[in-house]
Structure formats: structure tokens, C-alpha cells
Amino acid sequence: MSSNSLTITDNRTGKQYEIPIENGTIRTMDLRKIKVADDDFGLMGYDPAFTNTASTKSNITFIDGDKGILRYRGYPIEQLAGKCTYLEVAYLILHGELPTEAQLKNWNWNITHHTFINENIKKVLDGFHYDAHPMGIFISTVSALSTFYPDAKNIFDAENRHKQIYRLIAKVATIAAFAYRHRIGLPYAYPDNDLSFTGNFLNMMFKTSELKYQPNPVLERALDVLFILHADHEQNCSTNSMRGIGSSHVDPYSALAGAAAALYGPLHGGANEAVLRMLSEIGTVDRIPEYIKRVKEGNFKLMGFGHRVYKNYDPRARIIKQVADEVFEVTGKDKLLDVALELERIALDDEYFVKRKLYPNVDFYSGIIYKAMGFPVEMFPVLFAIPRTSGWIAQWEEMLLDPEQKIARPRQVYLGSDERDFVPMENRNPS
Ligand code: ACO
Questions:
Q1: Which residue has the higher pLDDT, 318 or 17?
Q2: What are phi and psi of 186, to 5 degrees?
Q3: Pocket of ligand 1, candidates 268, 358, 362, 364: which has the most ligand atoms within 8 Å of its Cβ, to mutate?
Q4: Class of domain 77-405 as given by CATH
Q5: Is the pTM of this model over 0.85?
Q6: Confidence class of residue 365 from pLDDT cuts 50, 70 and 90?
Q7: Is 114 assigned a catalytic role?
Q8: What is the pLDDT of residues 55-74, one digit of tens each?
């Protein structure tokens, strides 16, 4: 018997089974041989919300939630955030290695030269009501891209895939900025190929009458760091959606629209928007104790606190706090920062939060920075989706090329009615 295995005794039958352990996991398919009778389906794992189930092997992102570690392709997030641009990190996430100078130049050129969108996509955008939420516009417009690029269906052609990857990373920023401009009724500002990825994004967002938009270098860099921090986060809800939808072999635009929809929820990428609304609702430092009391009574959650994986601290939150200081030097301090700092101080000292290992997550401070930079709260989830696009497509490509992956299709435990006869309308009971 291999020592790297698990011996299970089925007390229903007294039989013993040996299940191999590989990479700290057992294959739940191995449980299927555990049966009480030949016609028994066999044992399954039951894991609502996948809290203890690995759905894939991956080489992209490593997280140790207890130690507060996040690495892309082995590189610590702190080093990448300190030394790279977002596009360099996107290259790393997608290709597995940091680019050489020539590779980075070529990569940047390719992304930059795919930022324009078909003029007809503007008509899609124009169809939205003036106050449509930009994340709703973003999701629908990314989905519409699949109709503009029917070649994207050819997902097993590597060259074709790369073309869609350039398009997606580049065009999500343009769509995001155009969604904002549509909402406030400003003419769309076209991409400027002379600027960096984030410089150009700021240009498309905020350019007015000036001939050439000059981004503030501190804000441009801060946004780049925020994009690096949001680029990937292994098998979270939206990435799992990207992989799940992509596993049907649909084109990447349709899959990415689904991933973005998953990100929109307040428990995921919508949290930074929810944090800011929460801080505005609290308003002043003196109202914090009453607010915390209501959280502890179970009335609602403290947005921007807690994480499924990080139970020590979120390393991204630490980096973001430094970025916040640099941004506020330029923009002036937002009054909500005092509320956030005091809320964090009180919560980290409170037994309720300490016991449950609830710490500020990446979204606790990102919203305050975005607000100081001039982004409206509705844009926050969109700002998350732009860089997460690189993570989503890296995970999608890894899934496609993984010979062990198939169409994602979980099992269920059926607890509904047993077979019963149809009841005619006149005999039905109103209850
Ligand atoms: N405020 C108050 N209590 C909380 C919070 C919170 N933010 N988060 C968790 N708890 C409590 C739960 O009520 C639960 O308490 P109980 O044991 O008394 O029932 C306990 O802590 C464990 O929480 P779970 O909900 O089991 O943790 P889970 O891992 O399922 O949830 C999640 C993680 C969704 C992030 C949760 O902490 C939350 O809703 N946070 C607020 C939303 C948020 O900030 N989301 C952003 C996540 S980061 C991201 O997507 C980039």
C-alpha cells in the first residue's frame, strides 16, 4: 500500500478502499467506486460553493491565505507592483515568463494597436439609457464584440487566440471609458497611441477640449499599480465563471462577458462600490461605533472586510494603502479616508472581527483612491474588470489547453419529490 494514499472504511459495508493522494488532493471520482450495491451510483463529494474542492491544476497564481501571500507565476505581488507596468504583468500572467525588452515592446505595440473599436460598437453603446450602469454597458458591449469577431470561435488556433487576447486586453479599456462618457453625455475620446495603457485610459475618460491629454504621472502610475493588483486572483467567482462558460468552447468574448457579470456582484468586484457607499452612509467618525454595532447584530456586512481565502491579511490592501498616500499628495485627502482609517482601527480591535479573521481586503481602500482620482463609484467594478481581463483570459487559455478539463458540469444531491402522478387543475391544493 502506498503511503501517499488514504484508506477509507465504508461502515455501511465494512469494505476498505485505498484512494491515492496527489498534490494534497484526492480525486473525488475515486470515491465513486465506494458503493453499497452494484447498482449504487457511488459516493460523491458534496461541497456547496466549492470551499474545499480544487476544480483545476494551475500554474498562474499562488495564494497562501494564512500567510497573506500572493504571487503571479512565482513572483511576489509586492515586487511586481513595485517594478512592473500592468502590461508587463499581463504578459507574465499570460505567457508564464517576464518579457525581454524586445518582447515587451512588441506586446505593448500590439495591445496599443488594438485599442480602437468598430464604429458600430458605438451604436451599441448609444442604445443604452443615459443613466445605465457602466458595468451593465460593459458586460453587454463585451458580449457584442463576439458578433464583430466571429473568427474568435476558432479557439484551438493559437495564432487566432492571440489576436483575440490583444483585442480583449486593449478594447476593454476603451469600452469602459466610452461607457462612462456615454453616461455623462460627453463625446467619446478616442485612444491616443502615444500614451501608456493607463495614460491612454485616463485620456479616454477625462479628455475634454485640450489638443493632447497629459496624464498626471503619479495618478497614471497609481492606476497602473491598482491594475497590477487586480490582474488575477486564481479561482475566484468570476474566474470560475470564465472557465466554466469557456469550457463549453464558446468564444472568449461571450465567456468574458459572463465573467464580468459575476464580478459585478457586491460580494465580489462590486464590493469597492459598496465600500464607498457604506463610508458615505457612515459619513463621520463619531457614527462608526453605532455602525459596527449593527454589523455585529447581523444586520449587514462590513463591506471591504473579509475574504474567502485571506484569513490573515490581504497583501494587496497593504500595497494599496501606500498608493493612497501618493495619490492624496496630488489630489488632496478625501474626507472619507478618516472614516475608513478609524473603521479599520476599531474593527481590527474588536473581538467579533478578530475571532472571524476579518481583515480589510483589496476593495477597502481602492474605492477611496478611485474617488480621489475623479472616477464615479459606478465605474469601480469596471475598473476592476479592465485588468482582470488579462487574468480571465490566461485562466481560459490554461483551461482550454489542459487535457484533463472537460465541459464543467457539477453534480447535485436531489432532495425533491419522488415520482408522483400529474394532478389535474381542479384537484390542486392552493397551498
Ligand atoms: N462583515 C461582518 N461579518 C462578516 C463579514 C463582513 N464583511 N464577512 C464575513 N463575516 C462573518 C460572517 O457573517 C460569518 O459569521 P458567522 O460565523 O457568525 O456566521 C463569518 O464572518 C464567516 O464569513 P463567511 O460568510 O462564511 O465567509 P466567506 O468566506 O463565505 O465570505 C466574503 C467571504 C464574501 C468576502 C465575505 O467576507 C463578505 O461578504 N465580505 C464583504 C464583501 C466584500 O468585501 N467582498 C469583496 C471580496 S474581495 C474581492 O472580491 C476582490
A1: 17
A2: -95, 150
A3: 358
A4: mainly alpha
A5: yes
A6: confident
A7: no
A8: 999 999 999 998 999 999 99
Q: Identify residue 202 by its one-letter amino acid code.
A: L
C-alpha distance from residue 77 to each of 38, 42, 90, 150, 319 (Å): 51, 43, 13, 36, 9
Q: Which among 245, 249, 251, 275 has a CA at the least distance from the CA of 370? A: 275
Q: 48, 65 in Cβ contact below 8 A? A: no
Whether 274 and 266 have beta carbons less than 8 Å apart is answered as: yes
pLDDT band at 202 (very low <50, low <70, confident <90, very high): very high
- Give me the amino acid identity at 100: T
Decide: 307 and 361 in contact? Cβ < 8 Å. yes
In this structure, the residue with its CA closest to atom 32 of ligand 1 is: 307
3-state helix, strand, coil in the chain (%, to 5): 55, 5, 40
By CB atoms closer than 10 A (0-12, 13-18, 19+), residue 275 is: buried
| Protein residue whose Cα sits closest to atom 39 of ligand 1 | 267
**For residue 63, which of 314, 240, 405, 363 has the smallest C-alpha distance?**
314
Q: Which three cell numbers stand for residue 384?
A: 476592476
- Residue 349's Cβ-count burial label (10 Å; 0-12, 13-18, 19+) is exposed
Helices (H) and strands (E) in the chain, counts: 17, 5
Work out the average pLDDT over 39-51.
96
User: What is the distance between the alpha carbons of residues 225 and 362, in angstroms, rounded to a whole number?
Assistant: 12
**What distance in Å separates the CA atoms of residue 317 and residue 328, rounded to the nearest whole number?**
16
Mean pLDDT value across the chain: 95
